[in-house]
Structure prediction request, 127 residues.
Amino acid sequence: MQNKEPQIGIFWLYNSRVIAKSTPLEALSPDSLSLYDCAYSHYIEWEKNAIFLPLYPELIGSEYQEYSRGRIVYCATTAIFKIYADKHFIDSAASQRLVRDRFSLNGRNCSWHVDSHYQRFQCAPLS
Prediction:
C-alpha cells in the first residue's frame, strides 16, 4: 500500500517485500520529547494478529523475530524520521528503499539506526 502522507509504524522484510502496520504522521501526537511514535507491537501484530495473512500463509507458525524488522518514529525537533532496524536490514540499500516507499518517506529526511532490540533471531544448528 502506497500512502501519500508520511507514515509512522513497524515493519518486517520478507522475500524483498515489506509487511507493515502504519499510521499517518498527522494522525499522531508527540510525546514529551517531541517524538511521534505508534503503540504497535511486533509481537502482537505477528503472533496474535497474523499481519502476514492472507498474502503469506507460509509464515504461519513462524515467530516475529525470525525476520528483519524495525520501527519508524518522527522527531519533531529535528524534522527527521528515525528508522530503527536490524543490522542486516540497515546494510541493504534495496531494503531501505522498500521501507521508504512503503512509508512514503522518499524525499524526506531519514536517519537509519541499528538497534539490537530488532536483531533478527537465528536458531543455533543442532549438533
